Each structure stands twice: as structure tokens, then as C-alpha cells.
Amino acid sequence: MFTQDVKISINGLEKEQANQVINSFLYIFNIFNSLDLRRFSSLIVSDKFDKDVKQISLDNQVIMKNKFTEKNNTHALVLTIKKDNDFETILILKSSFAINLLKNESNVMRYRDAIHIIHHELAHIHDNNKKIDSRVNLLLTKRSFLIQTFYPICELTWSEYIANFISSSSAKKSIYPLVMAKRLLSQIKSKEKIIKEIIGSVDKNLGKEEIEKISLHINVLIKTSSYLLGYLHGLKISLAQLDSSLDKEIKKSYFKKTWDNLSYELYSIRKDYPDCFRNETVFDSLSLLIESMYKR
Q1: Contacting residues for 187 by C-beta, under 8 A, at least 6 apart
Q2: Cα angle at 292 between 165 and 210, to 5 degrees?
Q3: Engineered SS bond to 66: which of 26, 95, 124, 205, CB 3.0-4.6 Å?
Q4: Which contiguous run of DSSP H or E holds residue 92?
Q5: Where are the domains of the chain?
Q6: CA atoms within 13 A on the CB side of 112
Q7: Cα separation of 189 and 61, whole Å?
Q8: Model confidence pLDDT, tens digit, residues 73-82
Q9: How far is residue 174's CA from residue 78's CA, in Å, rounded to a whole number?
Q10: Residue 6 dihedral angles phi and psi, to the nearest 5°
């Protein structure tokens, strides 16, 4: 819920389309009014998305960045920036994506999916507010090298997990949970050989070079898993209930143990949410799990 004014800027749409997009956002704010949207200051719909993102990033100190990417194209971005003694959040959408918020009989599914994506991005704002409120520096200098090294992927894993957990209610009739499950299985199969080859060729004492070699492949599996687990935990269903054949395939794969452990670790963090962020070691156990994947 929020009571502050939000500055809205829309470019690349006709006036009637822009009005409809604004009405869609008012509808979204109303149905998802339990979200903590303090610090949400600006909504930008742009036909010069990359240019606007670059300019905002140059003009401000960006603290956190959350993006929705599909087919290697970023369509939505949440930027949390420093503002005086606090922070503020900007949501930027490509105008080509925002047009999916125009509801009509020919785009019912795209409209429904667009609502879910906006819900997901607003969930990032909610989660970022909880982190800011905790006032805890999760990257204290006394943390170990590996904890600090794996912190970025832990943060990304958590952020996408909790955003999908929070926004899962709008994904009940969406294609995204099943899409993520299929994507994960495809990645598990395609990455198996190369992960084994790379891990077998590097020193077991992980250094920066070894981590960089492995991360391109393992981090993809971790991120997709976090998306899918957020849906499953939020919808309170198992993978078998979503798709039994995919569940069987993952259970018999090399990834099963990691999948089960990742599910447990994310649940363990969430059960104390948002107070978990008052603990500087909140991601330690998750870091150790991810580290173990690099040494398997």
C-alpha cells in the first residue's frame, strides 16, 4: 500500500493508449494493495528504454537493480537509487511491453501475463523496502572471501524467489510457472556435460578465475530454480502437481539434491521474513550450498 504521489511519464504511446495504461496501473495498485510500495516515486513508460535507463543510472547512485528479461530483451526494470538520506524506486517499462496492458479480446493471455509481470516488479519494490528498513549491511568486511564472492548470486536468487512467491497469486492462470519448469529441465540437460568438464578441470580451492569459469553455467540453473520455487511455494503446489513428467525428469537428474536443498534454504529464509534481514548471516547457508555446486 502507498499514499505518496507517483510521477508518471509515458512516451511512445498514443494518448488514448497512455490513458488506458494508467487505468491498468490504478487497477493493479488496487488489487495488490497489500504490497509495501513506500519509496516508489516514478513510473516511466519509454520508447527509448535503454537510453533512459543509462541516463538515470548516470545521474543517480543505483543501489539495487531488478529486471524482467525475456528472450534476452529487458522489458521492465526496477531501479532503487539513493535520495538524500533515504532511497527511492523507479519502475521503467518498454512502451512495446506496456501496450500489453491494453485489455481487449485479442490479447487476453498477454494482458494476464503483463499484469503478473507488473505484480512481480512491484514485489521487488516491496522486498527492497524490507531490506532497506533492516538497515543491516550484508557485506560486512569481516565476512569470508567465499561468502562475499557468492553474495551477488545469493541476493539474485532470493530476490527472484521472493518476487515470484509474493506475485504467485497473479500467476495461477499464467503460462509462466510451467514455462519456468520446462526451462529448468532444458538447462539441466544442456549444462550437465559442460559443468562436469569445467569442474573437473579446475582447482578444488576455488579462486576468482575458477569461479568465473563455472558461474556462467551454474548461476543460470540457480536463477531459474529460484523463479520456479517462488511459484511453487507461493501457489502451495509441488512440481509433480504442476507437471508430473517434468518432476520425474528432475528427480532422476544430477540436479535433484541441489534442487531439494535450494528449496529448503529459500524456505528457511522466508519463514522469518522480513525479520531475517536483521541477521547479517542470513545468506551464509545459501552461500555454502551454492559453493558446494562449484565443487561437486
Answers
A1: 220, 221, 224
A2: 110
A3: 124
A4: strand 86-94
A5: 7-105, 145-293
A6: 14
A7: 40
A8: 899 999 999 9
A9: 22
A10: -115, 125
Expressed in angstroms, the distance from the first to the final Cα of the chain is 44
| CA distance linking residue 104 with residue 243, whole number of Å | 30
CA distance to 3, 12, 132, 280, per residue, from 85 (Å) = 20, 34, 12, 22
Quick one: average pLDDT of 239-265?
Answer: 97
> Among all chains, which residue has been given the C-alpha cell 491498468?
24
Tell me the three cell numbers of residue 76: 521492465
Closest by CA to 234, choosing from 162, 186, 138, 291, is 162
Q: What is the mean pLDDT of residues 85-112?
A: 91
What are the grid coordinates assigned to 137, written together? 549491511
For the chain, how many residues are written?
296
Could you tell me which of 142, 133, 148, 124 has the C-alpha nearest to residue 68? Answer: 124
Whether a cis peptide bond, with omega within 30° of 0, leads into 152 is: no
Beta 40-46 vs 7-10: how paired, if at all?
parallel
Per DSSP, 275 falls in state G
Which grid coordinates are listed for 73? 530483451
User: Exposed, middle or buried, 216 (CB in 10 Å: 0-12/13-18/19+)?
Assistant: exposed
Amino acid identity, position 136: V
Alpha helices in 92-207 (DSSP H): 95-98, 108-134, 145-167, 176-201
Rounded CA-CA distance 121/109 in Å is: 19
- In the sheet with 86-94, reading across from the earlier edge strand, the strands are 7-10, 40-46, 86-94, 73-83, 62-70
- Please report which helix (H) or strand (E) contains residue 82, including its range: strand 73-83
**Distances in Å between the alpha carbon of 216 and those of 208, 242, 265, 281?**
13, 28, 22, 25
Model pLDDT, residue 278: 87
Cut 0.85: pTM above it: yes
